[in-house]
Design a protein that fits this description.
The chain is α/β, with parallel strands linked by helices. The chain contains 20 helices and seven strands. Strands 1, 2, 3, 4, 5, 6 and 7 form a seven-stranded mixed beta sheet that branches. It folds into two domains: 118 residues, no CATH class; 161 residues, Trna Endonuclease, Chain: A, domain 1, CATH 3.40.1350. It is elongated and about 80 Å long. Helix content is 52%, strand content 12%. The chain starts with 11 loop residues before the first helix and ends with a helix. α17 links the parallel β5 and β6.
Length: 392
């Protein structure tokens, strides 16, 4: 019997050339990156879907309680009873506390136009007797979610419930509320960040800055830059007074970098301060250098402790040209400059930037106010307060 032929083993070369070859590292990296983005997108969508359904459920509950209170003449005493009974019926579900039920009612009452857009009276939609209309071929009572979704503002539906409560309690103007709701979705703000931005009145400071972005940046980057770079910055967190030198202001910003990044807004990544550039054999130093992950460009921030002057724009153009030549890669967009001044005259800014070839924004900032001279002697110092407490 002839010896059985051995099947040759696949060599490394045959694996590469045949069907079983290993993927190239670059191809695999691209596939892995695509899969990660797909999974992350799915997770975000699932999270948003959960938020939407919970928000709509809470709207339904607030609507039902509010309407029944009105029809039956019930007062607020029914809410504690409902809280106890709902918790007993759904012990595994959180959110049915007395406080949250009151918030659901407030949430419904904040958007009364919703009830005006539904095809039938809202009360009938939740009345068991309304199901009789299902037997009539000409009428159909939709489910609450399907009935509510087209009427409720899309952004309000998508954001988390706790964020909605912050908006209701702290932002009474509906246009401002829509602004913050959109920002929550764009930037994934936490509640703490949302509260900070509301208290600093971001809606009054964003998108109105003095700049030449329309003339120096292509669409849609010019629109995005106007949206992301503020007109005014609140630097009261620095705990410094108005009488401060530029270097002191810079050092204080670096010490409070986290708060400064929060005030700058989303997308700013800090690169360095007093960033050195060698130009023509001479050293020049940028006050602050950032990279913006949404605009895909470097951002130079120059600090001024006085009002804006036209010559500041000329020096900023010099810095931006240098950064574009030295640091900018082929994938980066044009470098943007922000002149952060104590104050600015918009007419002077307009003339100064009109013929500038580089994208520059001029913004002002606020610090803690210095006490008037006549009051300084009237208010005790920290040491005097301490001595006074010892005496007590």
């Amino acid at each position: 019997m002839p010896p059985k032929k051995k099947t040759p083993r696949k060599t490394e070369r045959s694996l590469v050339q045949g069907k079983d070859r290993s993927p190239e590292s670059s191809d695999y990296a691209q596939l892995f990156g695509d899969l990660k983005r797909r999974i992350e997108t799915s997770r975000v969508r699932a999270h948003l879907a959960v938020n939407r359904e919970r928000t709509l459920l809470y709207y339904d509950i607030g609507q039902m309680i509010s309407l029944r209170q009105k029809e039956e003449g019930w007062g607020s005493a029914v809410i504690p009873r409902l809280a106890v009974d709902l918790k007993a019926s759904f012990p595994e579900i959180k959110g049915f506390s007395e406080r949250n039920l009151k918030r659901m009612i407030a949430f419904f009452r904040e958007y009364p136009a919703l009830a005006e857009k539904v095809p039938q009276a809202v009360a009938q939609a939740f009345d068991p007797s309304a199901t009789e209309s299902l037997h009539q071929p000409t009428e159909k009572v939709p489910q609450p979610v399907a009935l509510l979704l087209p009427a409720l503002d899309h952004s309000v539906v998508q954001i988390p419930w706790g964020h909605n409560i912050v908006l209701i309690e702290k932002v009474k103007d509906l246009e401002a509320r829509r602004f913050y709701a959109a920002k929550i979705l764009e930037n994934s703000w936490s509640r703490a960040v949302l509260v900070h931005q509301i208290e600093s009145e971001l809606h009054l400071r964003a998108g109105n800055q003095s700049n030449n972005f329309d003339l120096t940046l292509p669409d849609p980057q010019s629109d995005l830059a106007r949206e992301l770079i503020k007109d005014s910055f609140n630097l009261e967190f620095l705990d410094v007074r108005e009488s401060i030198r530029e270097r002191e202001l810079e050092e204080s910003l670096i010490k409070n970098l986290r708060d400064f990044l929060l005030e700058l807004g989303t997308g700013f990544a800090f690169i360095g301060n007093q960033y050195r550039l060698e130009i023509g054999g001479q050293d020049y130093f940028l006050d602050l250098l950032f990279y913006h992950t949404h605009l895909h460009c470097h951002v130079v921030v120059e600090l001024k402790i006085d009002a804006f002057k036209p010559e500041y724009a000329g020096k900023m153009q010099f810095y931006l040209a240098a950064v574009d030549d030295i640091l900018k890669s082929e994938r980066d967009a044009s470098t943007i400059g922000i002149l952060l001044c104590k104050e600015k005259n918009n007419i002077v800014v307009e003339y100064a930037l009109r013929d500038a070839s580089k994208p520059i924004a001029v913004a002002d900032y606020t610090l803690k106010k210095t006490l008037p001279k006549e009051l300084k002697g009237e208010i005790p110092s920290a040491a005097e307060l301490k001595e006074g407490l010892k005496g007590d």
